[in-house]
Amino acid sequence: MRNLILVGPMGAGKSTIGRLLAKELRLPFKDSDKEIELRTGANIPWIFDKEGEPGFRDREQAMIAELCACDGVVLATGGGAVMREANRRALHAGGRVVYLHASVEQQVGRTSRDRNRPLLRTADPAKTLRDLLAIRDPLYREIADLVVETDERPPRMVVLDILQRLQQLPPR
Ligand SMILES: Nc1ncnc2c1ncn2[C@@H]1O[C@H](COP(=O)(O)OP(=O)(O)OP(=O)(O)O)[C@@H](O)[C@H]1O
Ligand SMILES: O=C(O)C1=C[C@@H](O)[C@@H](O)[C@H](O)C1
Ligand SMILES: [Mg+2]
Fold this sequence. Notes:
Layout: E1 3-7, H1 14-25, E2 29-31, H2 32-40, H3 44-68, E3 74-76, H4 85-94, E4 95-101, H5 104-111, H6 125-143, E5 146-149, H7 155-167
Parallel strand pairs: 1-3, 1-4, 2-3, 4-5
């Protein structure tokens, strides 16, 4: 395995599970969204505001390429990283890919408290999440080595499931 890469929608728990996995595996943890913010010196809502979604996606593509070239890191990606084919290729080649699945209901519950996801500043965030998942679910699956359910399961249990199932994967 080169890297361990988490993909999935907003609120699936990529950042939360990624941090725990890295601790368990004693590997460095990188969160693409956080790295973009550090590099830009601005938060994601600001980038969307000033540069629009295409500006953010360009920054994201550059960051995904950079992070996928690492060796031995746990990487949490942004929910929309799979929208670009170049990212899907880089992620698949960058290591084992785990799709953290969450139902729209759980995503709504987990994202309703904070305001730093510009795509959810809509009149009906549940509909937005449903529409995004319809487009993205096949793309997450296309590059995933594992699909892991996160509904009704605390982060620790999700981490244990991932660690167990990673051991059972045949070599690529
Ligand atoms: N398995 C889980 N059960 C309950 N709550 C969870 C679970 N995983 C994550 N959470 C909570 O859901 C919220 C969102 O999680 P997190 O930020 O890790 O999602 P994300 O996939 O990184 O989202 P984004 O794509 O927006 O970065 C956090 O408050 C986190 O504590
Ligand atoms: O699902 C998405 O498109 C996004 C998810 C977040 O992780 C951030 O990357 C950003 O808010 C966009
Ligand atoms: Mg995150």
